[in-house]
Amino acid sequence: MRWWYVGDLANVDTLDGGESGTVSATTGPFWELDTDFAGKSIIGVDGTYTPVGTDFQIFDDATPGDPKFRSGYWLKPTGRLYDRA
């Protein structure tokens, strides 16, 4: 699972009730930055595109376009599993 995040990266550790520190089953942040998606955009998968998790180009020099993109971060879950209730 990945989560699109447009907030301040400094607040990710405390997102969803997480906390700064070392990740264990009950401590630390729930989310972390997924660096695999740095500088990339997500697109749906079907027979036209490459397999899930691989990089490819949509636009080439022969067909310049003006796509609109919004900046943000992709987060992925950490190893923390439970909230301390």
Shape: elongated
| Mean residue pLDDT | 82
Helix amount: under 10%
Write down the Rg: 17 Å
Beta content comes to 5-15%
The secondary structure category is mainly beta
Write the SSE topology.
Elements: E1 3-5, E2 31-33, E3 73-77
Antiparallel strand pairs: 1-3, 2-3
Please outline what is shown here:
The protein is mainly β and 85 residues long. The chain is built from no helices and three strands.
Outline the structure in words.
It is a single chain. The chain has strands at 3-5, 31-33, 73-77. It is mainly beta and 85 residues long. A three-stranded antiparallel sheet has the order 1-3-2, with no helix packed on it. The two termini are 24 Å apart. The mean pLDDT is 82.
Based on the model shown, name its key terms.
elongated, mainly beta, 85 residues, three-stranded antiparallel β-sheet, 0% helix
